[in-house]
Amino acid sequence: MLGGRGGAVDATAPPVAFALGWLATGHSLVGGVAAAVVAGTAVAAWRLRRGDRPRSVLIGLLAVCVAALIALRTGRATDFFLVQVLSNVASALAWAVSIVVRWPLLGVLVGVALRQRGRWRRDPALLRAYGRGSWVWAATYALRVVVFVPLYLGGQVVALVVARVALTWPLVASALAVSWLVIRRSLPAGHPGLRHPVTVPGPAPEAGTGPGTEPGAGTERERPPRGERPLR
């Protein structure tokens, strides 16, 4: 979700290189695509040298290559940003749906990071807080869609690059701060915090399955009808 400095460079360097190459070559799509791929490859090599995980590095480079292929296929420079537009639409929907089904993605991510598995969901206050905080992240993706789609439809290549840079790391940092504030204010006074979910006991066991229901524990055996032998 955050990606650190490497994620910020992945998200901004190739689009900026695409726009610069596109402008420098007289709006040549090939020039823009070549510049983006070179920039993406350079970023991937830099991240591998820093010791980043190869999988995340290759995914970032693959995203640049897919965007370049789409643009070359359609012949439209703005289609270099089509993957970004669609991914933000999908992300906004995913975050909203996760809240509705009571599996807010913010809780899932923090729960995985804290190795809590699903314990946080058994804390009603924490579940509610994560739901409210997740709306902040859903709003960030919705904001990108609202900004990106008109620029994409209008063929504004340079404006798309500026919007992508402005709505990447600065927006993520803002969402992180706001969602943390929302979670803190949503938790009741005296709650021990994210690391210590206050789990609510599960539902009571069904009749006949709890302690003291086995034979000899003060309950009668069920007698078979007259004339029938009990099954052994």
Distance between the termini: 60 Å
Quick check: average pLDDT?
85
Portion in helices: 55-70%
Biggest sheet architecture: none
Listing every helix as H and every strand as E from the N terminus to the C terminus, the arrangement reads: HHHHHHHH
Assembly state: single chain
What structural class should be given to the helix and strand makeup?
mainly alpha
Number of strands: 0
Note poorly predicted spans: 203-232
What Rg, in angstroms, do the CA atoms define?
A: 27 Å
Strand content is: under 5%
Q: Give me the number of helical elements.
A: 8
Shape: elongated
What can be said about this structure in brief?
By secondary structure, the chain is mostly helical.
List the helices and strands and how they pair.
Layout: H1 4-24, H2 29-50, H3 54-74, H4 82-100, H5 105-113, H6 124-153, H7 157-166, H8 169-186
Provide structural commentary.
The chain has 232 residues and is mainly α. 65% of the residues lie in helices and 0% in strands. It has eight helices and no strands. Helix 1 packs antiparallel against helix 2 (29-50), helix 4 (82-100) runs antiparallel to helix 6 (124-153) and helix 6 (124-153) packs antiparallel against helix 7 (157-166). The longest helix has 30 residues, at 124-153. It is elongated, with a radius of gyration of 27 Å.
Question: Tags for this entry?
Answer:
single chain, 232 residues, mainly alpha, disordered C terminus
